[in-house]
């Protein structure tokens, strides 16, 4: 079964021909266009995007399936996804895709189990791990050298440090 990964979002309509503005979540924004087939919400699969214009915070794009402003208005807010298998392999130590962190166990340096990662968020200043404790209370810690000591995808754990100010 394939797993989808969100790589962008539709932000707004642009003009009358069905063009729309997107935000790319890829590390380099133009990398968004290197994938051949995309999924847009639940109704649009196997679509291709044509870049119309670069914007300061994204792109204006078009696709064959959405050719009117009315159709474009219906997709505002939808996420743009690709199959995980389309992502390039990472062969460097200590590099990973954020979706690989979901469900990893968070432990302190002394081995204490803190909880598990339920999402990776960014509210503007930095990327954050959203962690759910066993008591179902959630909290965030920034993904930085000062808080994340080690990510071990094989053991499915993240070792954290200096997080006393973040734990609720």
Give a written overview of the molecule.
The protein is mainly beta. It has 2 domains: 4-86, Beta Barrel (Elongation Factor Tu (Ef-tu), domain 3); 98-160, PRC-barrel domain (SH3 type barrels, Roll), CATH 2.30.30. 4% of the residues lie in helices and 44% in strands. The chain contains 1 helix and 13 strands. β9 (113-122) and β10 form a beta hairpin. The longest helix has 7 residues, at 69-75.
Major sheet description? 7 strands, antiparallel
- Integer count of domains: 2
CATH superfamily of the largest domain: RimM
H-E string: EEEEEEHEEEEEEE
Q: Give the C-level CATH assignment of the largest domain.
A: Mainly Beta
- The average pLDDT score comes to 90
Which key phrases capture this entry?
single chain, 168 residues, SH3 type barrels, 2 domains, 1 helix, elongated
Describe the structure concisely.
With 168 residues, the protein is mostly beta strands.
SSE layout:
Blueprint (H helix, E strand, L loop, with lengths): L3 E11 L4 E6 L13 E3 L3 E4 L2 E6 L2 E5 L6 H7 L3 E5 L21 E4 L4 E10 L4 E6 L5 E5 L5 E5 L4 E4 L8
Parallel strand pairs: 8-13
Antiparallel strand pairs: 1-2, 1-7, 2-6, 3-4, 3-7, 5-6, 8-9, 9-10, 10-11, 12-13
């Amino acid at each position: 079964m394939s797993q989808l990964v969100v790589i962008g979002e539709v932000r707004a309509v642009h003009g009358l021909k069905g063009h729309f503005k997107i935000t790319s979540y890829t590390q380099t924004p133009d990398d968004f266009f290197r994938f051949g087939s995309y999924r847009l919400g639940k109704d649009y699969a196997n679509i291709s995007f044509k870049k119309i214009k670069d914007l300061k915070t994204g792109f204006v794009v078009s696709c064959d399936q959405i050719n009117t402003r009315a159709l474009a208005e219906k997709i505002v807010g939808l996420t743009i996804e690709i199959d995980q298998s389309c992502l390039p392999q990472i062969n460097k130590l200590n590099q990973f895709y954020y979706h690989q962190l979901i469900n990893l166990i968070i432990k302190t340096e002394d081995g204490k189990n803190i909880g598990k990662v339920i999402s990776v968020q960014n509210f503007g200043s930095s990327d954050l791990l959203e962690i759910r404790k066993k008591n179902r209370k959630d909290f965030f810690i920034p993904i930085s050298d000062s808080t994340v000591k080690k990510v071990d995808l094989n053991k499915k754990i993240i070792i954290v440090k200096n997080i006393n100010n973040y734990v609720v």
